[in-house]
């Protein structure tokens, strides 16, 4: 079993060496542990520090593309490098490298496809009271939408099997955490949570400038993912609610009209008709969006198959026994 620990980095020269030093190079059940960083257009000495620390693989974006795209790029690189298990951690040393064996254990025991590190956000003293409450609320919402039972939905400390990694397609630019959980629930993947250790905060989060902005972006990501993966359910319920609301004033008008008192009550008819029309259009959108979602699932299946075919060694590689790990250094293009 080959494990690749990937670290998305953006100007992490101050903490990267400590993160790399804490990653265990020997784990029971794992034959090889390699480290990969995804440099997201850093302007400091992040890449230089990575080389000095003996990082095995360095993937570079030509410019800053954001955490979600860097994560996706790292996953694709790790698959190309032959990883059986991929662990994602942060470059700010938030997560303890000593918890990596706990993350991969359920995968080694074939109990999970994805394992999420649970920081116990509701009790974590590193979080403010407001952040703890918002974390608990957000996790509850994601749990209900995805059907996946996790304790820390926005934790970036995760382990993926090779099979689960093949299915990952991150569409948002902000963060991959909530979208991939909803995606996993839709694909029937088994997701488990394990408690992990965290380190003292070294710097404020760069994902958003404030808690308000972070929550705003997370809400948009959750809604977008929900409408993307469960469009029929979302639009159909909205349409049925509007139809129900529209029926009430229409029935009210019909009642008064039947008893001969309908004059002057046209407002109810107009209002109800507007809601009925909006509800009808929304129901039509529900079925159209479901057709698009079906097409998206077929496209994802094709993309997954293409990824698998790309990872199969050619006949010449098999004959030459080209099984040495690939070292990716200093790439400035988008492709890996």
Report on this model:
By secondary structure, the protein is of the alpha/beta class. The chain has helices at 16-21, 46-52, 67-80, 100-108, 129-146, 162-166, 177-186, 211-229, 231-258, 266-311, 315-320, and strands at residues 2-9, 32-39, 57-60, 85-88, 114-118, 158-161, 191-195. It is built from eleven helices and seven strands. The protein has a seven-stranded mixed β-sheet with strand order 3-2-1-4-6-5-7, sandwiched between helices. The longest helix is centred in the C-terminal third of the chain and has 46 residues, at 266-311.
What's the gyration radius in Å? 25 Å
Strands across the major sheet, in which order? 3-2-1-4-6-5-7
Helix content: 40-55%
Number of helices: 11
Largest sheet: 7 strands, mixed
What percent of residues are in strands? 5-15%
Average per-residue pLDDT, rounded, comes to: 82
Structural class: alpha/beta
Low-confidence stretches: 314-327, 329-336
Q: What characteristic shape results from the CA principal axes?
A: elongated
Sketch the topology as an H/E string, one letter per element: EHEHEHEHEHEHHEHHHH
Q: How many beta strands in the DSSP annotation?
A: 7
- N- to C-terminal distance: 23 Å
